[in-house]
Amino acid sequence: MSLRPEDSSATELPDGPSLPESGSVLIVGPTMTKKRRLMLSMLAEEEQTDTGTVVVTTKKPAPTITRELEHLRGEAPERYEVIDTTSVADLLEQRSAPDNLRYVSSPGDLTGIGIHLTESLRGHYEESRSASVGLHVLSTLVMYADLKRLFQFLHVVTGRIAAAGFSGVFTLDTGFIDDQDLALLKQPFDAFVETREAGGDPEYKVRGLDEGPKSWTPLRI
Questions:
Q1: Is the peptide bond before 137 cis (omega within 30 degrees of 0)?
Q2: In this predicted model, what pLDDT tens digit does every residue of 91-123 receive, in sequence order?
Q3: Structural domains in the chain plus CATH codes
Q4: b/e for 62-96, b at 16 or more Cβ within 10 A?
Q5: Distance CA 142, CA 146 (A)
Q6: What is the pTM of this model?
Q7: Which residues are paired to 88 by β-bridges?
Q8: How far is residue 11's CA from residue 68's CA, in Å, rounded to a whole number?
């Protein structure tokens, strides 16, 4: 990843990893290891004018996500949508404001999330635009939804992303889930980025991606 010369106000993006042309990546690691920042950086790297960005957020409200994307790109994204499940009352009152923001009443409403996400992906597909999908963070969904149902949701969503030739990047906090459940939730994904804290600083490595370090490397974003 590199900073575009004309985007002097943007934050420099890390040297890898990049999103695959098709398929989904899971960023997994402890809290406070910059997984959201890395996810948004991977989405922000998509510079093609015909590429849309769709982000599902279960932790940070939609305005925070849009501001971070704008900062990383150095300009307001021309095509992006945010599906907000944070249940923030004052935001829910603004449903009729920006057309690119959609609201779901609870992170546990997987049906509502799926409907909005499917509508967004269908719109891009029917207009012959590619799209990148981000979801931050799956750990919230684990607290609200039955694990088997969440697995089925992920299986369907990642399947639709791949079938359309789109790419996706999801984040998951460890520490809230045991190894067996983590192994189950990893199954729908094509590649992985692991993060960890080392001496107070985050590190990362990749598995299943062409770009990015295969051994632990400082994550400087």
A1: yes
A2: 555 554 567 888 898 899 999 999 999 999 999
A3: 42-209 (3.40.50.300)
A4: beebbebbbebbeeebebbbbbbbbbeeebeeeee
A5: 7
A6: 0.89
A7: none
A8: 10
